[in-house]
Here is the input.
Amino acid sequence: MVVVKKLIVIFSIIGTICIILGVLWLIYGRIEVKLIGDEKILATYNEEYHDPGFIITKNDKEMDKDSYEVITNNDIDITKLGEYHLSYDIKYHFLSFHLERIINIVDDVKPDINVSLESIKRDYCTKKDKDKLEYTIIDNYDGDITDKAVVEEVDDNYIINVSDTNGNENTLSIPIVLTEKPKDVFKLNGNSTVYVTTNSKYSDSGVTYTDGCGNKLNDKVNTVNNVNTSKNGEYTVTYSVGNNKLTRKVIVYTPSNTSNTGSGSGKVIYLTFDDGPGVYTEKVLNTLAKYNVKATFFVTHQFNGYVPLIKKEYEAGHSVAVHSYTHNWNIYKSVDAYLNDFNKMNNDILKYTGNYSKIFRFPGGSSNTISRNYSKGVVKAIASKMLNDGYQYFDWDVDSGDAAGASRSKIYSNVVNGAARCSKCIVLMHDIKPNTVNELDNILKTLTSKGYKFGTLSVNSPTVHHAIAN
Ligand SMILES: [Zn+2]
Here is the structure.
């Protein structure tokens, strides 16, 4: 019996313990607590830090957040690099847990390189950049570190390299793009047709052959020049580079007026051309050269690109004289305005001939009335001052009529008939009028065949003065 009683007691104790353990199991179960993520975490300087937290499970099931208490502690300062601690103290009934994590605030961000252009254009010839490489570099920790950049040129790229104080490096490559290779230039120097008098010395002005960058390649040009000035005729000078070919026509001739003493002896014709140099002036010079006739050009600066032809006019033996820089009627608003315009033109003449001109022609002639609209008596005042200062002005006694739009045949008859009956024989023409330019060959053929002599105007030449009207 005693044994039985003892067994009963033992079993009751065991039963009671089992009941207590069962109740405890119901409350606590198998509780596990752990950090989410690593115990050591690197976090970025100056960026908000979010801790991934912890997980608490009971019997492998995540516990309801309301069933436990948590106290979180940390000393994290994201604005300073360094090591910080974060801890969680968790209480669940009589149980408590402590979790701890180390957070390192580090600078792990590369400096940011900003460029204004995706690529840099470079001149093919000069090898100089046409664009400027411009950039700014901002670092999250150091701020503006543009001046810390190292720029190198490697294989047609600019390499911008920079590191911040914490060793974060960044590199950016900007391509350098060459401009297109310019084309070669192969062109004649001087005119494509040249008139040369018999037995004179012919010196060919050659060609220009350059690569697109202006480097001379003239030694690569093959020139064939058979011009023989002892024999009249038409010659062709040929220049070739590979398959490219240029030619110049050289005409050797005997001018008629040098051999013809003719019936018009004693008479001197002064051909004058106003308002150029312009697009037709070279043609006029060629035609004059063909007949070996010298003339006078009253020049302007109306056609900018042609102004240098003044040099050719001068070098061909023609007289160069002042007409007007602008050829605007408002030069007549005062003597000063006129002289200002006049002097500008004379400076051009100085530049291309080496001398100022002492002779001029009033725009519209000295008898023009248009100047009345600008200033009363201005032409008279200008004429008087200029003559006093040793200048001379020239009107005309033969008018080709080209300014008024005469046809080619009318221009021809005006000049040829005018030359037959003139006394001073100053012939007004315009080298900017195509009818005059195109008819000039016929006119010269006739005038030279009549044996007239041709002269150029100078300050001592006989002059024609119209009656001043203002
Ligand atoms: Zn004019």
